[in-house]
Amino acid sequence: MNSIKTIIANVIAIYRRELQSYFASPFAYIIAGVFWLLSGFFFVAILMGPEGLIAQAALRDQMGITTPPVDVAYQFLSYFLGILGSLALFILPMLSMGLYAEERKRGTLELLATSPLTNWVVALGKLLGVVTFFLTMVLPLLIYQAIALSAANPPAPITVMLLGHAGLILMAAAILSLGMFISSLTDSTILAAILTFGLILLLWVVDLVATSIGGGLGDALGHLSLIKNYTTLTQGILDTSSLIVFLSYILLGIFLTAQSIEAFRFQRS
Q: What pLDDT sits at residue 117?
């Protein structure tokens, strides 16, 4: 029991240290500002722009189209969550690139590698810190979506909103976990960001490759797709296989990071 309490205390200590480093970093605020600016732009464009959903609904009314009404709230959430997922593809590698690369550059990675803390504890604490920072970036978007869609008719699908944003956080955690592993391999933050982006882009479009291959191999590759599993959740479908895929990526990233730091410790011993 005492060992479990010690592990939890160590994870919290690393978590707080990592989270404080993000809130003290001007670059992190720049990333958050760009993310909010772009997401706000697309929010307005999708909902209220000249080609937005509200404009399309008004045009249908003017033309007297009698087909079933468009569920503006559901369509908006589907479009907007898709946009947020695409933005995350570019934003998240910049958040994960310094998780270990900065430690290497400052020479503090050796201290972490030789400390009594296990590599798993350090990796988990760092991952929780960066995921929490991304969560603080998403929360304002969730608030103004709820405000904008509160008067929707039919009402905004709360299940889709919550499940879709939960999917965004899970996908972000998976990307950040893999990015953390790549960051542990180099002392160059730029190289870490580029390699992470390349890996995530591959996992993003693997569904296209799976479709072209077909058969059992294609189905297996399709399950690895980030976009396919993310889209399932944004549609309000609670698919356990999608949850398992994201959790598997998260655990894989933590495991590979711990092994990478163990190899670094072995080299220094």
A: 65
| Domain ranges for the chain | 2-40+84-268
Task: Write out pLDDT tens, residues 108-156.
Answer: 666 666 665 678 888 999 999 999 999 999 999 888 888 777 766 666 6
Give the C-alpha separation, 251 to 244, whole Å: 10
**pTM for this model (two decimals):** 0.87
The amino acid that residue 76 corresponds to is F
Residue 68 has phi, psi (to 5 degrees) of -50, 140
181 vs 97: CA distance, rounded Å: 9
| Separation CA 251–CA 174 (nearest Å) | 8
pLDDT of residue 168: 93
**In sequence order, what are the residues at sequence separation of 6 or more whose Cβ sits closer than 8 angstroms to the Cβ of residue 143?**
none
CA distance 193 to 203: 15
Q: Is the dihedral of CA 213, 218, 221, 227 positive or negative?
A: positive
End-to-end CA distance of the chain: 31
Q: What is the mean pLDDT of the chain?
A: 82
Identity of residue 204: W
Residue type, 251: L
Could you give phi then psi for residue 172, rounded to 5 degrees?
Answer: -60, -40
